[in-house]
Design goal:
Number of helices: 12
Number of strands: 9
Distance between the termini: 13 Å
Largest sheet: 5 strands, parallel
Shape: globular
Structural class: alpha/beta
Radius of gyration: 19 Å
Strand order of the largest sheet: 7-6-5-8-9
Helix content: 40-55%
Strand content: 5-15%
């Protein structure tokens, strides 16, 4: 089993489903008020270069539930933020804490940190991947659909870190994935090639209606992510027609579920009507970040 959780494709299906089993156990104990101090006395260092609501709160609350402690470090308040080599920060932090979660821009930076860290490192988000979110998403679908690996998933919007992670997930879990992105905003070609080489069933299109047709799971994200604010107007033009609205939902399976990793820009990439509809499982996704990440931390740090 891997020491770190950096990218979904680093892990086997068996290992990831073992995390889902532990997630279910921990969620049940949380709901029942049963103590589950699997990380008593342990500390997680949390390095943030990108702001967050759900990532910080879910990891910090999760460590508390597990009997441990989480330490929040904004990059601007660390020596790494002042130019200290990543390997020096990694080596020192590993002598203080039992695990590190990093939310930053560069996937290469997280991988370098992990290379020099003797304690587990968790990718809390990079510009390339968002593996914890995908784990929460798939666990959420499994709660709503027993046969979650046999469904048709649909990604509509930017070919960003979420799209890359869904492509990785399709290769590991074996479900059919349809990806609809505008020209110039396609997913990473290297990620697509690796998934194809792994035998993934993925259909790429520019037409969101074609992608949504009969799908059981619809998923999207904001059109301009953190760090892309200056591209907002340009992207709004490029992504016009890529909104998840009721017209698109009505093309999908009648019992389809709709997902969004949040924060959402209502009436932009997704309508208020869809977010408040019976199809939306968006807040279950948000909650399950807590439970899945607790299972990941317990697996790596326990």
């Amino acid at each position: 089993m891997n020491k770190d959780f950096l990218c979904l494709s680093d892990w086997s299906l068996e290992e990831l489903e073992t995390i889902f089993t532990l997630t279910s156990e921990l969620k049940s104990k949380q709901k029942a008020g049963t103590p589950h101090h699997l990380l008593a006395g342990k500390t997680l260092g949390m390095l943030f270069e990108k702001s967050s609501t759900r990532t910080r709160v879910s990891f910090e609350a999760g460590m508390f539930h597990l009997g441990g402690h989480a330490l929040f470090l904004a990059s601007g308040n660390t020596q790494m933020g002042r130019g200290e080599p990543i390997k020096d920060t990694a080596r020192c932090m590993a002598r203080y804490v039992d695990g590190v979660m990093i939310r930053t821009y560069s996937q290469q930076a997280v991988e370098e940190f992990a290379k020099h860290s003797s304690v587990p490192v968790i990718n809390g988000l990079t510009d390339s991947y968002h593996p914890c979110q995908i784990m929460a998403d798939l666990f959420t679908v499994s709660e709503h659909r027993e046969n979650y690996r046999d469904l048709t998933y649909c990604w509509i919007g930017d070919g960003n870190n979420m799209a890359n992670s869904w492509i990785n997930a399709a290769a590991v879990f074996g479900f059919e994935l349809r990806v609809a992105t505008p020209a110039g905003y396609e997913p990473d070609t290297a990620v697509c090639k690796r998934a194809a080489d792994a035998g993934a069933t993925i259909f790429y299109t520019k037409d969101p209606r074609e992608a949504a047709q009969g799908a059981q799971v619809l998923n999207t994200d904001v059109w301009a992510s953190m760090g892309q604010e200056e591209e907002q107007l340009e992207r709004a033009k490029a992504f016009a027609g890529y909104q998840i609205n009721m017209d698109l939902v009505n093309l999908a399976d009648p019992d389809c579920v709709v997902m969004h990793c949040l924060p959402a820009h209502r009436e932009e990439e997704i309508t208020d009507e869809v977010m408040e509809s019976r199809h939306a499982i968006i807040y279950d996704e948000a909650e399950n970040r807590l439970h899945v990440q607790k299972a990941i931390m317990a697996t790596l740090m326990g």
